[in-house]
Amino acid sequence: xxxxxxxxxxALRLSPDELERYRFMAQRARVQEADLWELAGLRAGAxxxxxxxxxxxxxxxxxxxxGPHGAVxxxxxxxxxxxxxxxxxxxxxxxxxxxxxxxxxxxGLPAGSYDVAVLRHVLAHNGGAEQRIVSHLxxxxxxxxxxxxxxxxxxxxxxxxxSPDIEDMTERYARWHAERGNDVRVGRRLATLARSAGLEVxxxxxxxxxxxxxxxxxxxxxxARDAMVASGIADAGDVARWGAAAAAMDxxxxxxxxxxxxxAAVAHRPAS
Length: 272
Ligand SMILES: C[S@@+](CC[C@H](N)C(=O)[O-])C[C@H]1O[C@@H](n2cnc3c(N)ncnc32)[C@H](O)[C@@H]1O
Description:
single chain, seven-stranded mixed sheet, 7 strands
């Protein structure tokens, strides 16, 4: 893959429900991780790069956090995500954030020029390249600057009440990742990855994020349905069943609870 090619392994299709999911995650992150953001230096005036920024929901939260005297750069391998992120930022009237297409392990951005480099929900899609990516982020921050890593242990995710079709979709999605060599439990390894990149770990935390599933929000397995069909792990009939099961979830008056095991590591580059 060259710096301008989309990431060939990333398979979550952007759609209105997927964009809603990103907005939802970004809103929760600011609240749940407020102390970790502060520890990492995510505050007014900071220069921040968000690698694997996706469609821009997190960039928006970061731009609000650093304020008019800070700066935010976004990088993503998917041209559709880059275009969406640009329009989300423009729509919000934010012009202090630039978004470019690039690889997570070779962004092409100048080394040592950021206060904070952020990487959220990217490593689980990059089996075998995890260390290369974290080491690249470490190179982007100035001495004393921070790297903020966040990812999940998807093997511990769930929904309650569930249904056989939702469980089937989730199980096949896990198998699809495994076949690609992706580590869906990578969240557990964030501190080790940071240390191996020459960083000093300031905090390493994990928690269960449990919340009612908003109507209309699907999950990453649903967003990967086309890729699963293309790989032969599922067919159109499976997708129809899963879609019906997700719609049935929307009809429940009592919202199902989704639960996700999330991990975050804040680490800094030694001053010398
Ligand atoms: C699950 S989304 C997370 C988006 C955002 N970080 C967030 O938390 O809202 C992962 C994003 O990382 C991008 N991505 C994954 N692997 C990448 C790679 N190797 N190089 C560049 N972008 C990558 C995908 O295109 C996708 O937009």
